[in-house]
Amino acid sequence: MKNLVRLKVLRDNMRKRTQCEPLAVSRPRHRRAYDRLCPMQDASIEEHGVFNEKHGTGDRLTEAADHGDGVTGDLRMTSDGKRAEVIQRMASVQRLVREGMPLMTYEELRGVRNATKALFEEIDMAMDNARETEAAAAEHRLEEQDTKIRWLELGHAIFEEQKEGMEKRHSAERQELQRQLEEEREKALCLVCLERPRNTLLLPCLHFQYCLDCLLQHRSCNGNTCPTCRRSIEGLCMASSLAASSPPTTPRAQQPYV
């Protein structure tokens, strides 16, 4: 409540001077200005008193000019309502000082100037602090964005690595299946010509590894023996249907080998 006491003391001193000192030629004009200023001062004091009783705080704007610790707290308020309230109070004090300057003494005006200078210095410090705070917040946001980008890049790299590994495994599986398929096809081909499917079962040794054309050619050159075990061939059994890519089926009928 220091500012209220100062305003009341200032008003009382001005009233005493006007009552004790003789008025000059221009004193009536000053007197009328003073009479107009007094109600404004009283209204401002009452308004500040009501506000202090309601909120339990003093006029921190004026205290900041004396002590340098109130304006920064007000300027850092996060509520827009509080900010607007502080600005309104600053404008009220400025208007009050501006209207009362014609009635102030040299010492009082110098005190107001010093208080204003200290206030501007405090505002400059608050602006510097706000600039540093905003810069730190922006830097923090940039760091958070960089962290998110790094996590995304890491996730993308892991995904690409897993994708590449899956492609390699699938390629190896395809190659293995292709190799097995080729082996099965080779198993179904005649061991002599490697072109035609196996379609003839030899009796009684039961070898099923040749086609009929190769067996007939073998008989004409090497006699009536099995190309595998060299046993005599007593008969042939032709398969009903064979394909190069399918395993041999059960022989359908036995034919004499003559």
From TrEMBL:
Q: Which PROSITE patterns match?
A: ZF_RING_2 (PS50089)
Q: Outline the extent of the RING-type domain.
A: 190-230
A Pfam family annotated for this chain is zf-C3HC4_3
- Check the record and name the SUPFAM superfamilies matching this protein: RING/U-box
Q: Which residues form a coiled coil?
A: 123-194
Write out the GO MF terms: ubiquitin protein ligase activity; zinc ion binding
Asked whether the UniProt record includes Zinc-finger among its keywords, one would answer: yes
Any one GO BP annotation for this protein = ubiquitin-dependent protein catabolic process
Q: Does the keyword DNA repair apply?
A: no
Q: Which UniProt keywords apply?
A: Coiled coil, Metal-binding, Zinc, Zinc-finger
Q: Output the PANTHER family linked to this UniProt entry.
A: E3 UBIQUITIN-PROTEIN LIGASE RNF26
- Protein name as it appears in the record: RING-type domain-containing protein
What is the source species?
Ceratopteris richardii (Triangle waterfern)
